[in-house]
Structures are given as structure tokens and as C-alpha cells.
């Protein structure tokens, strides 16, 4: 069925026109991006393993963090290997099926990230506003349900959108980006895109407006408790909410950069800067989160210091 739909588009590949000739510098860009990808893998995998093997970190906040780190590995893997391959190629083309797969990966990464951050704000709201009932309200079963909903809902919404995308009749195959995105394909369509536009608006409301309203509500309640609560409550709120807010702001900025480039003429901005801003949301977020949570979350920092001490002792024993 899917193969028949793909055939109906009459486009077998896309040309990515945002790439430009960098000469021998392409090997430098390749090395930088490869190092960045390796850093993302090592930092996120390290924190996932750290949370999984330490029972003291099997708390709701850290389990939601674990889901966040898994998503960052997923999202970066949907982009980095593709860009590394394209940098070394002389002709920058991508097959239709691979393009649709990349769109699915990147858009589901964004969905999971946003909904996961929303669930984390809800968790902070319960922890700070209802400390005595926190563990009865945020049970293990509820954590499993929330994480499952985050992933299943996100993947399902994006799968429906991609099904509608591959149903379009396309009249061109040039995408002015370094990766595939949904709106570029819709712009190439010469068939009616009303259904896609309506679904896009509904999806945007569910994916952006609803999470933002829930996050704002959570933090308004947290602020209210902080102003009327004790110094200990304020300290707890600052120490646990600061990394979350920093992550949320960084991710939102990255998404805004991409939206702005879609809506406004950015020809006056240098090409390299435009490319960087278009991939900010998936390149910097997976680096930023392990850093900010590793440095700010006291339990993670303590466990990291403990590992350093153990490694130091073993090194001295070997000597």
C-alpha cells in the first residue's frame, strides 16, 4: 500500500540545494560534526546507564530524564549520520523513502521532546506543591503510563502526518535545506494540500499550545507556593526547576529559529548561519541537556563524583 502511494508521487529522489562547495574544508566540517555526534552519544548513554544502574536514581524525575536522553539519541541519529554522508558526497540527493523516514524521525523527536518536558513540569508541580502526597500521586505505574503516552502519542501523530505527506502529488524535487522537512515537500505539491494544512494546524495546537498552557499553569502554581512557602521549598524549586526551564527555553529557541526561517526572508543572513540555525534544535539540545542536568542535579553530580573517586582508586591500585 505504502509503495503504491510513494509511486503516485512520481518523484523518486530529492536534491538538497542548501549544500555548497566547501572544497577541502568539508573534511574539517566532517570531523567537527563527527566529534559532536560522538559527544552526544557518550554523554547521553552515560547518563542513561547511570540512572538505570543506581537504584537511588529510580525516582520519577530521573526516569523522565532517562526518557529525554533516549529521545536525544534517537533525534540526533536521525540527522547526524545523514549529514556526515552528505558532506562527503559531491551530489547531494536523497531517495524519497529515506527522506520520509528522516522527516518521521526528526518530527517525532520534536514531539517527544516537547511532551516529555511537559510531563516533567507536571512532575515538578506535584513534587513542590504536594510534597506529602507526591509518592502516592506519582506512582511507578503512573510513570510507566506517562512515558508510554509520551512516545506512543508522538509517534502516532507523526505517522498520520507522514501518511498524508506521501499521498501528495509532487511537481518538483528540490529542497532548499540540508535535510528533509515536511513543509518543503508540501511546497512542492501540485495537488490539493487542504487536508495537510488542517491536520497541521490541529497538530500544532495539540503539540505546542496545549503543552505550553500546561507548563505555564504548572510554573504559576510553583511560583505561588515558592512566594508563600519556606526557604527550603524555594531552594528545592530553584535546584530542580532551573535545569528544566533552561532545557525548555533552549529547545523552544531552536524550534523558533526553524519557524522564523520558514516565515521570513532570510537571504540577508549568511548561508552558514542559516544552516546552523535550522539544525540548532537537534544539534545543541542533545549536548545542552546532559551538561545542564549533569551539573545542576545534585544526585547525578554526586554519583558522577563517586564514579570518579572509584576510577581514581582503581587506577592507583593498578599502579
Summarize the structure in words.
The chain has a single domain (13-315), classed as Rhopdopsin 7-helix transmembrane proteins, CATH 1.20.1070. 77% of the residues lie in helices and 3% in strands. Residues 1-8 have low confidence and may be disordered. The longest helix has 35 residues, at 194-228. It is mainly alpha-helical and 319 residues long.
Compile the SSE list and pairings.
Blueprint: H1 2-8, E1 13-16, H2 25-53, H3 60-77, H4 80-88, E2 93-95, H5 96-129, H6 134-137, H7 140-166, E3 174-175, H8 182-187, H9 194-228, H10 231-263, H11 271-278, H12 280-283, H13 285-296, H14 298-318
Parallel strand pairs: 1-3
Antiparallel strand pairs: 1-2
Helix pairs in contact: 2-3, 2-4, 2-13, 3-5, 3-13, 5-7, 5-9, 5-10, 7-9, 9-10, 10-13, 13-14
Keywords: Cell membrane, Disulfide bond, G-protein coupled receptor, Glycoprotein, Membrane, Olfaction, Receptor, Sensory transduction, Transducer, Transmembrane, Transmembrane helix
Pfam families: 7tm_4
Transmembrane segments: 27-50, 62-85, 143-160, 198-220, 241-260, 272-293
What's this, in brief?
This protein is 77% helix and 3% strand. By secondary structure, the chain is mainly alpha-helical.
Key terms:
mainly alpha, 319 residues, globular, Rhopdopsin 7-helix transmembrane proteins, 3% strand, single chain
